[in-house]
């Protein structure tokens, strides 16, 4: 799959850095993600029904509820990462949020750049 990098709303950092998520990411994905996500608009819908889904459970923290999501291992331009698909999302199927153990934008990725996404 191919897609273009877009700016997000800046909310990924808040959610990704919650202890309830980061602990599960470490256990199930093998890394604690950089606090933030990279938004990519794919040329085609992401195959969210793929059998490779890794389930992340919802939790309570500070009186707030945080919902379930599914993760899919990918390579983005050769870098191991994961797509995060919240259970409740308004994003179209072509828009994905990518997490990785490194800040992907420091690798020279900018808005409008085309990237290659491989589902593992």
Architecture blueprint of SSEs:
Blueprint: E1 2-6, H1 12-16, H2 19-29, E2 38-42, E3 54-56, E4 59-61, E5 64-66, E6 69-76, E7 79-86, E8 95-99, E9 114-119
Helical fraction? 10-25%
> Which strands sit side by side, in order, in the main sheet?
1-2-8-7-6-9
Rg on CA atoms, Å: 13 Å
Which structural class best describes the helix and strand composition? mainly beta
CATH architectural name: Beta Barrel
CATH first level? Mainly Beta
N-to-C CA distance: 12 Å
**Total of domains:** 1
Question: In terms of per-residue confidence, which ranges show pLDDT below 50 for 5 or more consecutive residues?
Answer: none
What would you say this structure looks like, in words?
The protein is mainly beta and 120 residues long. It has one domain (2-119): Elongation Factor Tu (Ef-tu), domain 3. Helix content is 13%, strand content 38%. The protein has helices at 12-16, 19-29; strands at 2-6, 38-42, 54-56, 59-61, 64-66, 69-76, 79-86, 95-99, 114-119. The strands form two sheets. A six-stranded antiparallel beta barrel has the order 1-2-8-7-6-9. A hairpin with a 2-residue loop joins strand 4 and strand 5 (64-66). The longest helix has 11 residues, at 19-29. It is globular. The mean pLDDT is 92.
